[in-house]
Design brief:
The structure holds 2 protein chains of 2 kinds. Chain A is mainly alpha-helical. Helices cover 69% and strands 0% of the residues of chain A. Chain A has a domain at 2-75. In chain B, a hairpin with a 5-residue loop joins strand 7 (217-224) and strand 8. The chains are: A mainly alpha, B alpha+beta.
Chain lengths: 108, 551
């Protein structure tokens, strides 16, 4: 009887320790999740700030003069546009054998 | 007193030991039990010390290409518990050293109110300001994490975007109109039909207009006439939604939506369309515009118009040279009732119905008699918002059907609100008349080579207390382009624009050139393929008819 009681106590103690460890593990996991969520929120906030900075820095009134003065870019003029016919008119038509037939050339 | 013997003493000692042991055992049991409970059941929540505001989540606003226009960033607000503040005046004065914008007297009063346990001191602090306040080490203060609405492109689209109040609620513009969908849980960014590049071009052209002309205000709209998608809508002076209160009341007025104007001769294409639709006008009909005509108590005149034969002015002459007399003669053929019904059908006599911010209702005449019909035919007597007029003009850009303006994507084929207001041939004829206006008429300054601009100038005298004031004009230019396959409607309206170089105050010299430059700049962004007209024959000799007023 005494042995049975002791065995029961040991089993109960073992179960209690198991529950305790499981609970502790769950709390640690919850803390880790919370930490990760904080990190995600923080990174998302950083992304928001960076996107806002990108939008601010890419304002046309800032980019326009830079593109013009440093890269020599300018808005396209209508004459620079060409339809499909225009492209075909400049395209080289080459036979599979490698021979060139009479036709437009890709060379400018 | 009899002293206790050794046996009695031993008994009492054992009893004391047992009592103490039981007491200690109970205390230990309580501690163990409590520890086990906390370990297994978790700790109980205590009263929260820190106050954390429920920051309102507000979705971003982006343009049609996904470029960011409005976003929410983390910010900190300073609050206080007056009951924890020892010396309110001292704290307020110290805060004033790092937050120069705060009202020290009002802050002192708030901090001294010990009946409250929470008062705001300053909202939306920058990280640097927060650090400075931290450095003061003052008692009773704490920070609340919030979000702050930011418009990273500054003034771009300021009027249409609107802004939020300090609590993050939309109070103007799209922020107000779409407040609910922007704050919905898990809301996606609000994608507008606006193209930031086209919007910038429009705003910068209005800024350039302000450099060229002394003017009171301006408005501009670019609409895709096949879908109703608004690609740009700008009001000048502009407003910075990051600091809306810094702008004066005049600048805060959104002239595209909330101002109404008598727009002048840009109504003439509508008059011709109404006449063609009514079947009272044929294309080869001519009119005598050689002399002013009387309409009731008023005399209608032209001013400096150029036609081949003023006794036989054609439709091209009347529209291209902007003849008031010819337009009134056409209106008389239509009759007041049919003219009224046409303008009502096209949407110019009622508040426009569209998504987004509401537009101002038009100002219309109480009676629609012969005189009213005559003045309305050339754009006087009815005042509408620029957006409303541009929406009506989409009929010329969409084969005779108007499309309702749209501000938010997606614009699907099923969702486009179309309304037929004239036949496709009528629309095509009027577009051709407007094309001739740009090629050889009053709209020559609006020509943008390759983009076949078809448009009409409008110069309207502003009404004053003593009638129309010839010294104050509303100048406008309404256009569709490209004329051979219209895709876009452009409307430019300038309020009291006077060239600084001293030139004429007409639309030909002001609004038309702005519209032409805008179309040349934006057509490539709008994927409009340039087309070059065949060289036209030299214009036949024309003669000048001098009259006193041209609109």
């Amino acid at each position: 009887m005494t042995r049975l009681a002791l065995l029961g106590i040991l089993i109960a103690a073992g179960l209690a320790v198991g529950v305790y460890r499981a609970k502790l593990g769950a709390q640690e996991t919850a803390a880790a999740i919370e930490s990760l969520e904080d990190r995600i929120r923080s990174v998302n906030e950083e992304i928001s700030v960076l996107r806002a900075e990108e939008a601010y820095l890419s304002r046309p009134e800032r980019i326009g003069p830079l593109a013009r003065d440093r890269l020599g870019l300018a808005p396209p003029s209508p004459e620079q546009f060409s339809g499909v016919e225009g492209i075909v008119g400049r395209a080289a038509v080459t036979e599979p054998s490698g021979g060139t037939v009479a036709g437009p050339s890709l060379q400018p | 007193m009899t002293p206790m013997g050794p046996a009695e003493d031993s008994v009492w000692s054992r009893r004391r030991a047992r009592v103490i042991a039981v007491g200690l055992g109970l205390a230990f049991a309580v501690i163990v039990g409590r520890t086990a409970y906390i370990s297994l059941a978790g700790h109980e929540a205590g009263p929260a010390r820190a106050v954390v505001a429920q920051a309102q989540v507000r979705a971003d606003i982006v343009d049609r290409n996904g470029d960011l226009l409005a976003t929410s960033l983390p910010a900190f607000s300073l609050a206080a518990d007056p009951r924890a503040v020892w010396d309110a005046a001292d704290v307020a004065a110290a805060l004033g050293t790092v937050l120069p914008d705060i009202d020290i007297a009002a802050t002192t009063e708030r901090l001294a109110d010990r009946t409250r346990h929470f008062v705001w001191i300053e909202r939306g602090l920058s990280p640097r300001q927060r650090q400075l306040v931290f450095g003061l080490g003052l008692e009773g203060l704490f920070f609340v994490e919030e979000t702050r609405r930011v418009y990273p492109r500054g003034r771009l689209l300021g009027h249409l975007l609107g802004f939020t109040n300090i609590d993050g609620e939309g109070v103007e513009g799209l922020e107000r109109a779409y407040d609910r969908s922007l704050t919905r849980e898990g809301a996606e960014p609000l994608r507008l039909t606006i193209d930031a590049g086209v919007q910038y071009a429009l705003e910068s052209e209005l800024d350039l207009a302000a450099e060229e002309f002394d003017m009171k205000g301006a408005a501009g709209v670019v609409i895709d006439s096949t879908t109703g998608a608004v690609r740009a809508a700008a009001s000048w002076p502009s407003v910075d939604p990051n600091r809306p209160r810094d702008s004066g009341e005049a600048a805060r007025l959104n002239r595209v939506f909330n101002a109404v104007y008598e727009l002048g001769s840009i109504y003439k294409p509508l008059t011709v369309a109404a006449a063609l639709e009514s079947g009272v006008l044929s294309l080869d009909e001519t009119f005598d515009v050689s002399a002013p005509i009387r309409v009731g108590p008023a005399t209608v005149r032209d001013h400096n118009i150029v036609v081949r034969d003023p006794h036989r002015a054609t439709l091209v002459d009347i529209i291209a040279q902007s003849s008031n007399i010819g337009t009134v003669l056409i209106a008389q053929k239509i009759g007041p009732r049919r003219q009224h019904d046409f303008l009502e059908t096209i949407g110019l006599l009622s508040r426009p119905e569209h998504e987004g911010p509401t537009s101002a209702a038009p100002l219309t005449p109480a009676e629609w008699d012969g005189l009213t019909s005559a003045t309305v035919s050339y754009g006087h007597g009815v005042a509408v918002s620029p957006l409303s007029f541009a929406a009506a003009f989409t009929a010329f850009g969409d084969g005779g059907e108007t499309v309702a303006p749209r501000f938010v994507e997606p614009v699907t084929a099923d969702s486009i609100e179309r309304k037929r207001v004239m036949s496709a041939p009528t629309a095509a004829v009027v577009v051709e008349l407007m094309r001739q206006t740009v090629i050889a008429g009053t709209g020559r300054n609006a020509d943008a080579p390759g983009y076949q601009v078809a448009g009409k100038t409008g110069t309207a005298e502003k009404p004053g207390p003593d009638g129309y004031d010839p010294d104050r004009n509303i100048t406008s230019f309404a256009a569709v382009f490209p004329a051979s396959r219209p895709q876009f409607v452009v409307l430019i309206v300038l309020d009291e624009a006077t060239p600084k170089t001293g030139g004429p105050r007409t639309a030909s010299a002001t609004a038309a050139s702005i519209a032409g430059r805008l179309i040349a700049r934006t057509a490539p962004m709008l994927n409009v393929e340039p087309v070059f007209d065949a060289p036209s024959a030299p214009a036949p000799e024309m003669q000048v008819v001098r009259e006193t007023r041209a609109l």
